[in-house]
Endonuclease (Spirosoma soli), 357 residues
Amino acid sequence: MLFSPKFNPNKYQRRGFRLRGNTLVLLFIFFLIGLFLHYGGRTQPVVAFWNDIRRIVGLGPVKSEKEDNPYKAPEPSTPNRADDVATDDRPGSSSSKKESSASDETGSALPSRRPQGKALFAFEKQVDFILPAYKPSDEIVRHEGYTLRFRDEYKEADWVAYPLLPEEINGDTDREGSRFVPDPAVRSGSALPADYTRSGYDRGHLAPAGDFKFSRRMMQETFFMSNMTPQVPEFNRGIWKELEDQIRRWALRDNGLYVITGPVLKPGLPTIGRTNEVSVPQKFYKVVLYCNRPEIRMIGFLLNNKGSDSSLKQFVVPVDQIEQLTGIDFFPKLPDDLERKLESKGRGEMVDEWFSL
């Protein structure tokens, strides 16, 4: 009598992983992993390759390639990440001497960049009129488009000052191709682009790139890391951008303005950074001055480093309040009585002067 097993293997099919049917998929996955590792973890080449494959099969590129994030740092074009390494160029080198020779001779790179077609006050003609008060020991960094005071203990500037001119706003230069780089003019060494990587914060501009469309060089200067500050993405891309746009509209309307902007820095702030400890501000400010003799007006803004749907008018504060919070004396070359009058104005009066025109 022969034993007949109840289990019949012919009735069952093998399920799950089949090596023969998945070999090509595995090879493709390993190829992508190798490509990713070859480029040092940068996703840009991998995404570009994937989009090529999608085009071949007729699917088109992924959405992220069509809609670039303007706040994302361009990835290094070479595998050694040269732009994440601090440069040895310093103001004492021959190349930097050429770049700064004009400001060394005149005392400032800014006097020739004044609003045109206006009647100037006598105090506007003073060298460095736009700059806040500073001490000889402070690290003042002058670029073609703006001047800043760098605070090494925070690895960022506490103020950036510049004239905002209509012809520079109306230029046709865009930010495509601009790269975040260390500032070679900072003696103590600026932060590095990598200090912000995967920190959860944007590299937020103090002097916006959109204020310097007149020339490629001036726009690229705004991508120096000395002009960057850690900003919450919803803040940088939201209410802060809205404020920058509003000030540009005023500059076009008023044929030029003076702008000072910066973070509120103080000991004990949280930090980010791989190489440097970059302080994360809780608040940011802007102080804007309009001059056209005999007319003059000033406005201040103070904002928390977080997203907001509130009106810009809600962030208008007396400039005196910003000075008390930051310890910075804005526009010290104004006559004392005029300075006190402008800086003590309340929100309602400033809103009427600026938003109602």
